[in-house]
């Protein structure tokens, strides 16, 4: 495990501005467990939107559920608002293959049919396996397939990135 010279706090400031411009009036924030949930919580507070943000787990709708099982966050979906007819801004930390986003959208539709779903991510690392594109990405960068880019949060709530795995040469 190594740290990455990528300023998550500066990217968060860009994400905040991007979500402000992306979201239609009355939209609800929904963060994907766990990094996206941290971001949605902070965005809700910093945007000063009324109500609460939602948290969604992709675990039950993942195409690799049989191999992963009920991993952390499997029972974490909490949507404290009506999804039906509501504009949703889905927030995640790192977009890679698109499989987590697909699973989260499937879970979201289990709660109703939103008016629309926009996707905002902190980092788009490319490598898509599905035709999913964010409406806003604070950064776009290439990370080798053998490595995993993960958002971390310390006790004070400061964000940073951790790079796991081996770089390929």
Q: What characterizes the major β-sheet?
A: 5 strands, parallel
Any low-confidence stretches, pLDDT <50, length ≥5? none
Can you give the mean pLDDT? 91
Task: List the helices and strands in order.
Answer: EHEHEHEHEEEE
Return Rg in Å. Answer: 15 Å
What would a concise description of this structure say?
By secondary structure, the chain is α/β, with parallel strands linked by helices.
What does this molecule look like?
By secondary structure, the protein is α/β, with parallel strands linked by helices. The chain has 4 helices and 8 strands. A 5-stranded parallel sheet has the order 3-2-4-5-6. Strands 1-8-7 form a 3-stranded antiparallel sheet, with helices on one face. α1 crosses α2.
Which helices and strands, and how do they pair?
Elements lengths: L1 E2 L4 H15 L5 E5 L2 H13 L6 E3 L8 H4 L18 E9 L3 H11 L6 E9 L11 E5 L7 E6 L5 E6 L5
Tags for this model:
25% helix, 169 residues, single chain, 8 strands, three-stranded antiparallel β-sheet, five-stranded parallel β-sheet, alpha/beta
């Amino acid at each position: 495990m190594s740290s990455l010279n990528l300023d998550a706090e500066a990217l968060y400031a860009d994400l905040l501005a991007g979500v402000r411009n992306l979201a239609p009036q009355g939209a609800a924030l929904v963060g994907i467990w766990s990094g996206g949930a941290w971001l949605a919580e902070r965005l809700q507070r910093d945007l000063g939107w009324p109500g609460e943000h939602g948290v969604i787990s992709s675990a039950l709708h993942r195409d690799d559920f049989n191999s992963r099982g009920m991993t952390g966050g499997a029972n974490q979906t909490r949507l404290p608002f009506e999804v039906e007819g509501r504009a949703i801004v889905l927030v995640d930390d790192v977009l890679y293959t698109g499989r987590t986003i697909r699973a989260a959208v499937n879970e979201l539709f289990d709660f109703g049919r939103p008016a629309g779903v926009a996707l905002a991510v902190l980092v788009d690392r490319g490598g898509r396996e599905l035709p999913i594109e964010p409406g806003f990405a604070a950064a776009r960068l290439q990370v080798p397939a053998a490595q995993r880019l993960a958002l971390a949060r310390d006790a004070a709530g400061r964000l940073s990135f951790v790079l796991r795995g081996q770089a390929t040469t």
